[in-house]
Amino acid sequence: MIRPPAAKAVLFLALSASLVVGYLFLLGVFRNKLGPFSAAVPALALASAALLLNRQFFRADGQSLAAIGLKAPSLRIRQIAIGFAAGCLLVLAWAATLMVLTPVSWRLTPAVSVTAIAGAVVFIVFNNAAEELTYRGYLFLLLANAYGRIVAVVFTCGLFTILHIQGGVPWPNALAGVLTSALVFAALFVRWQSLPLVLSFHVATNFMQELLGLRTSGLSLWSLTNTGNISISQNDSVLLVTAAINIVLALTIFYAPRRP
User: Exposed (0-12), middle (13-18) or buried (19+): which is 74, by Cβ within 10 Å?
Assistant: First the structure.
């Protein structure tokens, strides 16, 4: 039976939603039972299931995971290294914005657990892998081929942002940070169609945010100290400049001249 693209997209999203329900169930089962790895193990299960889901949908269309760059290991290793370095630089640009526009400083966290760092890193890698397989995998290519790249970018980035808002991210932060970051991820995928590249970039942005204390976790080697009365997370200037940096980067990736 040949399904239209819209029906395939709905089915893919429905099955992805069922995977998330299973992930939430595992989070409850493993809560505080595996120490710093209590969230990492469910994230690993979710990423593995998302990979299998993508493989099955590609196979049904007569394709393979090579369509999202899971081939040519030597090339992908180089892309992973470049993507990670670029993602780190982007977060450093965000941090520089904070330093210029707000009265903040950084201080080393007094005690950091090696196992907490490992648990946070494993969670970031597999949680982000699940997200990329959902938003920049089969679904993205299906929408792009059927309805055009703009539709694919708008739909996947919008869904990515809405689910972060539903997860508790304030909508101004979601629009300025999550949505514009998703545009960068989408631009990278459109340009190189390499999930390893996009994933490494995405992992790097989360890794550096947690490392610098922009998001607190067991990985936070530094913490922010606000020396004024300004709420950093709600500072309009910071949000606007961060959004502008991301949008400029996304547009540059989209429209920069391509080498043969």
Answer: exposed
**What are the structural domain ranges in the chain?**
5-255
38's CB contacts (< 8 A; 6+ apart) are 27, 30, 31, 32, 119
- For the chain, the straight-line distance linking the first and the last C-alpha, in angstroms and rounded, comes to 40
Cα separation of 260 and 242, whole Å? 32
153-194, pLDDT tens digit by residue?
999 999 999 999 998 999 999 999 999 999 999 999 999 999
Using CB atoms within 10 Å of the CB of residue 4, give its burial: 0 to 12 exposed, 13 to 18 middle, 19+ buried. Answer: exposed
Residue 53 to residue 15: CA distance in whole angstroms: 8
Question: In angstroms, what CA-CA distances link 222 with 50, 98, 241, 242?
Answer: 33, 14, 23, 20
Whether 114 has a pLDDT exceeding 50, the answer reads yes
Complete DSSP assignment for 101-132: HS-EEEEE-S---HHHHHHHHHHHHHHHHHHH
What size, in residues, is the chain?
A: 260
Task: Identify whether the C-beta of residue 201 lies closer than 8 Å to the C-beta of residue 188.
Answer: yes
The pLDDT tens digits for 30-71 are 998 999 999 999 999 999 999 999 999 999 999 999 999 999
